[in-house]
């Protein structure tokens, strides 16, 4: 929604499958959360003002489990202030 060049993220299961198909052991080395300031993220993406309400609705209308998983913080107006993206370092080791 924010960046039209980002169509979707591949799941870890998909990455694992591709590694296996290419004779690589799939090793998850490290996982971390990437803190994102909502306003900065919107500004960096040069998001058109008309798209902003849809992005806000997507974040604030997510399930409680999703809000917890991505640590979505909202202000007193219910607008997103920050959230966390998921990062992972995956190593493929040739068999």
Overall strand count? 3
Coarse shape: elongated
Which series of helices and strands comes N to C? HEHHHEE
Q: How many helical elements?
A: 4
Helix vs. strand class = alpha+beta
User: What is the rounded Rg?
Assistant: 17 Å
Indicate the percent of residues in helices: 25-40%
Q: Order of strands side by side in the largest beta sheet?
A: 1-3-2
Mean pLDDT: 94
Q: What's the number of domains?
A: 1
Give a short account of the largest sheet. 3 strands, antiparallel
CATH class designation = Alpha Beta
Described by its quaternary structure, the protein is single chain
Low-pLDDT windows of residues = none
Give an account of the 3D structure.
With 95 residues, the chain is α+β, with helices and mostly antiparallel strands. It has one domain: 3-Layer(aba) Sandwich (Rossmann fold), CATH 3.40.50.150. The chain is built from 4 helices and 3 strands. The protein has helices spanning 12-21, 38-44, 52-60, 64-69, and strands spanning 24-37, 73-74, 80-94. Strands 1-3-2 form a 3-stranded antiparallel β-sheet. A hairpin with a 5-residue loop joins strand 2 (73-74) and strand 3 (80-94). The radius of gyration is 17 Å and the shape is elongated. The mean pLDDT is 94. GO terms for molecular function: methyltransferase activity. It comes from Bacillus sonorensis. Keywords: Methyltransferase, Transferase.
């Amino acid at each position: 929604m924010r960046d039209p060049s980002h169509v979707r993220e591949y799941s870890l299961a998909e990455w694992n499958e591709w590694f296996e198909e290419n004779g690589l052991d799939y090793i998850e080395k490290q996982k971390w959360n990437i803190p994102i300031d909502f306003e900065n993220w919107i500004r960096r993406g040069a998001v058109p003002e008309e798209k902003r309400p849809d992005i806000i609705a997507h974040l604030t209308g997510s399930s409680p489990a999703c809000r917890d998983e991505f640590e979505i913080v909202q202000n007193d107006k219910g607008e997103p202030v920050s959230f966390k993206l998921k990062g992972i370092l995956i190593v493929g080791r040739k068999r």
